Amino acid sequence: MSEEPPTSSLEELDAKLKAARGQRPAAGTKGTEGDTRAGAGLGMALKIGMEFVSAVGVGVGIGLLLDYWLETKPWLMIVFFLLGSAAGFLNIFRTMSGYGYAAGYDAKNADKKSDRTGSE
Question: What is the predicted pLDDT for the residue at 114?
Answer without folding.
Answer: 59
